[in-house]
From TrEMBL:
Enzyme category, top tier: ligase
Alphabetical list of HAMAP family matching this protein: Dala_Dala_lig (MF_00047)
Alphabetically ordered keywords of this record: ATP-binding, Cell shape, Cell wall biogenesis/degradation, Cytoplasm, Ligase, Magnesium, Manganese, Metal-binding, Nucleotide-binding, Peptidoglycan synthesis
Binding residues for Mg(2+) 2: 311, 313
Organism, scientific name: Peribacillus simplex
Residue numbers annotated as active site: 15, 186, 322
Main localization, broad class: cytoplasm
Highest taxon of the lineage: Bacteria
Metabolic or biological pathway: Glycan biosynthesis; Cell wall biogenesis; peptidoglycan biosynthesis
Name this polypeptide is given: D-alanine--D-alanine ligase
Length: 360
């Protein structure tokens, strides 16, 4: 029997468009001889719309949007019956292709857990901790992973004590520094600051996207990334490197998705010793957050050889041209095989969870 796969995409998030592109790419790569594919579209307003079973690849993202008149409750999702004679409209496994809040942050994962549905990727804890950069960095610090200096503020704290907050940044981090929304990805809302005036503007920008921001020390370093794949025994891909153009301040949203003002080098030119250290740190990060399925781990490597972990992404960009799939392609796992591997990992994790006792 074919696997009944529900693809969950779109979402009430600033990364809605990124998710749509991911869904389009995954659908084009799936083998229809192995999967029955059911699109589940979430509008920007948060409405859930179950689309009809796909009979072929979608031509564009417009083909993956459906009328809000057909919206339904998320609770309409249900586990697919094991009875071959059942006419259940549920799913064998859900593949969340959601980026950012309301999808990558543990909210959808919690719902899927309550419904006892197998799903691809990280669970509630890893997703929520990986989404919140402050919590993530605190966990990494506990795990002994080296990081650049950082501080954080909630909106009310910043607004009530702006002058002292600016002084704290100057004293503890200095300039340049980077301001980021604590709970967002794809470089949305991130700014580089060289002085206090730029800091105030950057903070105002970041607070448009979250009630909490993180400010990090700026370092001159190479940006290296690794793909982690697995559950209890994860494996690490080759290294990749992001190289922005020289006139580019940093690897921002436009460089990633609009202007192409960056290049990916895979595999990155690093020594065997550097790879050994970086890959070990990547797996430590994966395990410290209790991750499963997939993670992309990002690092800084300075000219002096100092390594810092920057962050992990629990639902990295997933088009065939995104870093995570390309890392695994160069490691020997092509895009269709990577998708099938992730579905298998999801089913294995779900099966293990069924062994947990809930009665005494």
């Amino acid at each position: 029997m074919k696997t009944k796969l529900g693809l969950l995409y779109g979402g009430k998030s600033a990364e809605h468009e990124v998710s749509m592109q991911t869904a389009l790419a995954v659908i084009k790569a799936l083998d229809l001889a192995k999967f029955d594919i059911y699109p589940i579209y979430i509008t920007k307003e948060g409405s859930w719309i179950n689309g009809p079973k796909l009979t072929g690849p979608a031509e564009n993202v417009e083909a993956l949007t459906f009328s809000p008149e057909k919206s339904s409750s998320p609770l309409a999702l249900q586990a697919h019956s094991t009875d071959e004679n059942s006419e259940s409209t549920g799913y064998d496994v859900i593949f969340p292709l959601l980026h950012g809040p309301n999808g990558e942050d543990g909210t959808v994962q919690g719902m899927l857990e309550l419904l006892n549905l197998p799903y691809v990727g990280n669970g509630v804890l890893a997703s929520s901790a990986g989404m919140d950069k402050v919590i993530m960095k605190n966990i990494f610090a506990q795990a002994g992973l080296p990081q650049v200096k950082y501080t954080w503020f909630i909106r009310s704290e910043w607004e009530k004590n702006t002058e002292s907050a600016i002084k704290k940044v100057a004293d503890e981090l200095g300039y340049p520094c980077f301001v980021k929304p604590a709970n967002l990805g794809s470089s949305v809302g991130i700014s580089k600051c060289n002085d206090a005036d730029e800091l105030e503007k950057a903070v105002a920008e970041a607070f448009q996207f979250d009630r909490k921001i993180i400010i990090e020390e700026g370092v001159v370093a190479r940006e290296l990334e690794f793909g982690i794949l697995g559950n209890d025994e994860p494996s690490c891909s080759v290294a990749g490197e992001i190289i922005p153009k020289k006139d580019f301040a940093f690897y921002d949203y436009s460089a990633k998705y609009v202007d192409g003002n960056s290049a990916m080098v895979i595999p990155a030119e690093i020594t065997e010793s550097e790879y050994a250290t970086l890959s070990e740190m990547a797996i430590t990060a994966f395990k410290s957050l209790d991750c499963s399925g997939l993670v992309r781990a990002d690092f800084f490597l300075t000219n002096e050889g100092q390594i810092y972990i920057n962050e992990v992404n629990t639902m990295p960009g997933f088009t065939p041209f995104s870093m995570f799939p390309l890392l695994w392609k160069h490691t020997g796992v092509d895009y269709p095989a990577l998708i099938e591997k992730l579905v298998k990992l999801a089913l294995e994790r779900h099966q293990e969870k069924q062994q947990i006792k809930y009665t005494v």
